[in-house]
Amino acid sequence: MWLIALCSASWGCSGPPPGLPELATRVADTYLKAWQAGDWDSIYRLEDRGPESRSVLHQSLTDRLLFYQINEVRFSDSAAACAVTLRWQTPAGTYSETGELYLHRRATEWRVAGYRNF
Q1: What is the pTM (predicted TM-score) of this model?
Q2: 62, part of any domain
């Protein structure tokens, strides 16, 4: 058993750097909480766009994020994909969707790079 552990460590097959999954999850959670609160300044600071851009998740000015859940995080050294479930309130009613929130790392900071619903 120890031989397998030794071989894995020497071939670079160990897990991610300490704290990486938690850091990516924390950034996604902070972003979605800001979205729920309508805190546009925080949203724009977490996106990899200038403040003159629309938000990555922006549906319309009237939509409101009621609920979110981060389901799974896949990651590498410089990118992460967070599977999410979102529930929106719109003028026409509520609806739920699933998708992925994409993050990438620039230097030491993580930023939201995009979103795709399924």
Answers
A1: 0.76
A2: yes
